[in-house]
């Protein structure tokens, strides 16, 4: 583990074109849980982290300097073997761009699978190799 004052990632924000469509994708295909908070805001929870969702053009302040749907590139560690995830996703009609392929993550080697969410964000699903 690397040492320093930063301990972990609490949440990140994705700007999306359609929050309902994004929630449906992540809940249905990635098994995340929808969370509502702060006056109707919505997020996706997994493990001890979450992804806050901002609707493009109606972002919560403060926001990134140039928030755009489809500009994310995210890697998620999964307990599901990526070969099984590939088969499950393809059976559900979700396009898989690549994988399983070897990659390197923060803690070491990974076996990774690549797909895109409804906004075109690149999603990497990985197992430690």
From TrEMBL:
Identify the taxonomic lineage of the organism of origin. Bacteria, Pseudomonadati, Pseudomonadota, Alphaproteobacteria, Rhodobacterales
Cite the InterPro entries for this sequence: Glyas_Bleomycin-R_OHBP_Dase, Glyas_Fos-R_dOase_dom, GlyoxalaseI/FosfomycinResist, VOC_core
Question: What superkingdom heads the lineage?
Answer: Bacteria
The UniProt entry, under PANTHER family, shows:
GLYOXALASE DOMAIN-CONTAINING PROTEIN 5, GLYOXALASE FAMILY PROTEIN
Q: What Gene3D superfamilies would the database entry show?
A: 2,3-Dihydroxybiphenyl 1,2-Dioxygenase, domain 1
One Pfam family matching this protein: Glyoxalase
Q: What is the protein's name according to its record?
A: VOC family protein
Q: Where is the VOC domain?
A: 8-128
Question: Which organism encodes this protein?
Answer: Paralimibaculum aggregatum
